[in-house]
Design goal:
Helices cover 72% and strands 0% of the residues. It has eleven helices and no strands.
């Protein structure tokens, strides 16, 4: 495998990678905290959670297999050249592992907290069923010839497709309710930061190697950043421009919750009281 030509670029690659990991690691937690404080998941779209779990599970399979499997790495070098770098870093594996665990926590909160009339839609259940059935068929196709690189690229494609559609139910729910109450905007802020850092990390590697193979060798990673950034901008517009939070009670909307990350700063200070 190729080595780095520039120490500063190698350091920048690691810094950007772990910046993306930290941002994406923190991204799901504000929603967990918000759900816990409210003891409710009303306003948090269930289809988003189900599709998100499928997305991150597929991404974990891709990242962990390409990062740890010498057989898959050998197939990668045979396809793209032995002088190329593996386009998956340790931070990618760490992120996708953490993301799967957090998606499971979101599912647990849906099971135990007040959820009103919200349910999983038949459409999302159908999509997830088709995705895993297709993945199973692809596994048996790859098994006779040990085409593992082809197989994990299928999982990489799955995670891109799921990323492209998983945000749609939440965006539509916000539009329908004309509100983003119950959906933490901090998910989007952290996610946007991680997406930009992820894209920059790949660019740094390409500049150092004077090759853009890592972009099309891991097309899923670049598409993930672009798709996530697109939807992040939609959610930011919904939250701050289209449906800004209102102080007064509005019928049919959820106004009782406060964002757990800023609520603590708004508590009155009684330390001066005698």
């Amino acid at each position: 495998m190729a080595s780095w030509n520039s120490i500063p670029l190698e350091i920048a690659y690691q810094v950007l990678g772990w910046t993306a990991f930290i941002a994406w690691t923190f991204a799901p937690w504000p929603q967990v905290i918000l759900n816990f404080r409210r003891k409710s998941v009303v306003g948090f779209n269930f289809d988003f959670v189900l599709l998100n779990l499928t997305k991150h599970t597929s991404y974990l399979i891709y990242n962990a297999t390409l990062y740890f499997s010498s057989d898959v790495q050998k197939q990668y070098f045979e396809k793209y050249g032995s002088k190329e770098m593996i386009p998956v870093a340790a931070n990618d594996v760490a992120f996708s592992t953490h993301a799967v665990l957090l998606a499971l926590i979101h599912l647990l909160q849906i099971a135990i907290y007040e959820r009103g009339s919200q349910t999983f839609s038949k459409v999302s259940i159908g999509i997830v069923s088709v995705v895993w059935f297709t993945a199973g068929v692809c596994f048996f196709i790859a098994l006779p010839t040990h085409s593992w690189l082809w197989l994990i690229n299928i999982f990489n494609s799955i995670q891109v497709v799921m990323a492209a559609i998983k945000y749609t139910p939440q965006a539509f729910m916000n539009f329908k309710r004309k509100s983003t109450d119950g959906f933490s905007i901090y998910i989007i802020c952290f996610n946007f930061t991680g997406s930009v850092a992820n894209f920059m990390q790949m660019a740094v590697q390409s500049i150092d190697q004077n090759s853009w193979v890592n972009f099309y060798g891991n097309i899923g990673k670049i598409l993930l950043s672009l798709v996530s950034t697109f939807y992040d901008l939609i959610f930011l517009c919904q939250h701050f421009l289209l449906y800004p939070a209102r102080k007064e009670n509005v019928p049919g909307k959820i106004n009782e919750e406060k964002d757990p990350l800023i609520d603590s700063f708004n508590q009155p200070d009684h330390s001066q009281n005698v």
